[in-house]
Structure prediction request, 306 residues.
Amino acid sequence: MSQTAGILEQAEQHCRERGSRMTEKRKRVLSGLVDSDKALSAYELIDYCKEQFGENIPAMSIYRILAFLEEEGLVHKLNLANKYVACAHICCDHSHGVPQFLICGGCSKVKEITVNPAMISELKKSAEQAGFTMMSQQLEMDCLCDECMGSAA
Amino acid sequence: MSQTAGILEQAEQHCRERGSRMTEKRKRVLSGLVDSDKALSAYELIDYCKEQFGENIPAMSIYRILAFLEEEGLVHKLNLANKYVACAHICCDHSHGVPQFLICGGCSKVKEITVNPAMISELKKSAEQAGFTMMSQQLEMDCLCDECMGSAA
DNA sequence: GCAGTCGCTGCTATGTTGTAACATCACTGA
DNA sequence: TCAGTGATGTTACAACATAGCAGCGACTGC
Prediction:
């Protein structure tokens, strides 16, 4: 069984436990994200489904499916890039905190990391002093991966 | 002299020193951002120029002007919201570090803060360990301001 | 002053991301 | 089997952004 198939299997299991449905289309969208180590836009996922499965999924459906998958904790939306990535922890049984992301501006490769929780709470404190409440601890950082860094030099 | 006019004066001075031109249109766009404590989208700035000066500036020009102002360090682009804000430090003569932003998801109000430099360097280190180089230390945080927080409750 | 140049702006078209509103399809359970 | 609910389709459109080319206007050097 391929890596991707294993992850999809896990995701399906996850949905069963939560009483939600992992439909064929949802699996296809998720598989696109799992197969790719890059973040993909909704429209890139449309292309992926067309090429890979010969299926034309309208934009509206892709967005609904992405919203569903995000709700289930299977994908993350990257607001900085307006793209989407599969969660790096679909296969972990342990629950995990809010992730932070390193996003390559060159090739959209994404690394999901977990920064020091003390740092996040310090950020939260700074925000509160300024009269703001942080709604999401998901930090997104504009980076270049080593590969793109090399070819840019 | 109004607060805004003073800031515009400073900005003009800044451009003179750098050998770049602060044209009328550029001043109008900048004044829109300075007048507002919120982040504005390019299209909101078009509306502003129309209402305030009766001048129709096409989107293309607004984007070029925003790019120029960003180049000059007079405005910041908030990628999280696809909006723009005037730099909070146009009037400071001291140069300042890379800013971080608290963005209210309710009303687009923005607070520019400077977080502990040690935190930023810790982030940078984490990134490098993961094979990424941070290209911008500009963190943008999804928040609610106290006011919106109150009305949401 | 005048020609040449370069930077700024205008115009048109188009690409990309995302959503509203309403219709239809398909699975589930009584 | 049939009603109800959730998933998907369709159409239209809003918001953000850029490409490419044309024209205008302000400086420079002669």
Remarks:
- Chain A has one domain: 3-152.
- The beta strands of chain A are 75-78, 83-86, 100-104, 110-113, 132-134, 140-145.
- Chain A has a mean pLDDT of 92.
- The longest strand of chain A covers residues 140-145.
